[in-house]
Amino acid sequence: MARIIGGVGTSHVPALGAASDHNKHDEPYWKPLFDGLGPARKWIEKAKPDVVILVFNDHASAFSVELINTFVLGVADDYQPADEGYGPRPVPLVVGNAAFSSHIAESLVMDEFDIAIANEMDVDHGLTVPLTVMYDKPEQWPCQVIPLCVNVIKYPQPTGNRCFNIGKAIRKAVESYPQDLRVVIFGTGGMSHQLQGERAGFVNSEFDHMFMDGLIEDPARLTKIGHTEYLRDAGSEGIELIMWLIMRGALSDDIEEVYRFYHVPVSNSAYGLIVFDEKSEV
Question: Higher-confidence residue: 257 or 66?
Answer without folding.
Answer: 257
